[in-house]
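ok trying again, last paste got cut off:
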Amino acid sequence: MTTRHSIVAFGAHPDDIEIGMAGTVAKLARSGYDVNLVIATLPNFVATDTKEDRRREAIMSAKVMGCAKPPEFLDLAPDEIIINRRFVTQISNIIEKHNPQAIFTQWIGDTHQDHQALTRAVIAASRDRNDLFMYETTIPGGISENAFRPQLFVDVTQTLDLKTNALDCFDSQKVRCGPVWIDALVGRCSYRGYQMNAKYAEAFEVIKVSKW
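nice, full thing came through this time. structure:
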């Protein structure tokens, strides 16, 4: 590629982007895209899982995926992740700064309220943009009454190892989510790959896409 096209991927928490689209991030970075990761909040659940631990894990993961820069941490308090004008404006300013070719955010049908609020803000801030996609993040989240509709598939067979290595950076989540967490995500990639006649894939719902 002769120019570095910009991509922005939003995640409410460290590891959300990796769960849903680490293989795609690695593939885009490897293809020469300027991939910008944005993380809204840095939660901590126990004394051994601090905000700085989560920040460090996310920075390591971004390097593993091949991103040229660390994530941008908004470091919002949990009660600041709500759909209001202030949050939408903050997201809009990030989008304007990077002028991305495509924007990725979390599935709006997820059961986590932070995921839902972030995606509503991203959709509002992207209303005049093309190429907006939502990735799957319901592992290890709860089961939703909504059904994820896979509409865009990305073959990540060549970058699955980078996805698993990126997820392996999150020691805090391996403790919290259990020993089969990464295996479950690999299994989902295998299932999505089968749907598109590839070995491994990641799937996205399309909010808006431009073609030709």
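cool. Helices lie at 16-30, 51-65, 85-98, 113-125, 160-167, 171-177, 181-195. The chain is about 40% helix and 15% strand.
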